[in-house]
Fold this protein.
Amino acid sequence: MAMKSLRQELRRAPEFLRWRRPLLVLLLAVRELFRPFLYWYVFDIFVTDLRLSVPESYSKETLDIRIYAGNKDLPKALEDLTSVDDLASADIELRLKRGDVVAVVYADGHVVGCMWLTFSTGMELAFGTNWRIEPAEALRYDSFVSPEWRGRAIHSLLNNALNNYARERGVVRTLGGISVLNSQSSSLARHFRKSRAMRVTIVHLRGLNWTHRRALGAPLKTRFDTLPGFPVRSASITRRK
């Protein structure tokens, strides 16, 4: 498993270098170097209020967008998405059967991107830190765009499609988390000048099974639960205005 993971990371290395500034590349390299002993994440958390106008896509591409939901769409989703961004057929089946939906973008019949939406609480952010999804909320997650299509605002097409889908079904807000090291995905928030609702830092020391969590902007418990089995030393800091 370790060798497989290493090979996957090496295949993705050109994309890391293409889209990230040198400082981010250095931080990623340092994090991977210490992976056997210590690992960390920093996520910016965003909330979209669907009672206001839904952010429009700013992509100039004219592409086919489809949304798959439930057992009726499972065969097509399996056919088109298995192996996309290393998605396994079992994962796709599990997600659709629990009520998740996926927006898929096609160019000439080929998948160029996808993004998932769940209405279920309990999705893991990292190391036993799980999203808390309230009624009339949904979580956007696992956004992927094919390397050759990156830089064309495909992410904004997917974001718009899922936000509209959610609003039509009575959802009043959608949530999302973006790693601060993922400068490409952060471009959507920068384009709309969207302020983060919270920044969450998670540090996990593997040998001692010790986890530290820190939230800036709002208490961690407003959006996340922690699982047993991940001992916690956490701190939540509300940003002073």
The radius of gyration is 18 Å. The first strand starts at residue 38 and ends at 49. Residues 72 and 96 are 10 Å apart (CA to CA). The helical segments are 2-19, 22-33, 74-81, 89-97, 154-168, 187-191.
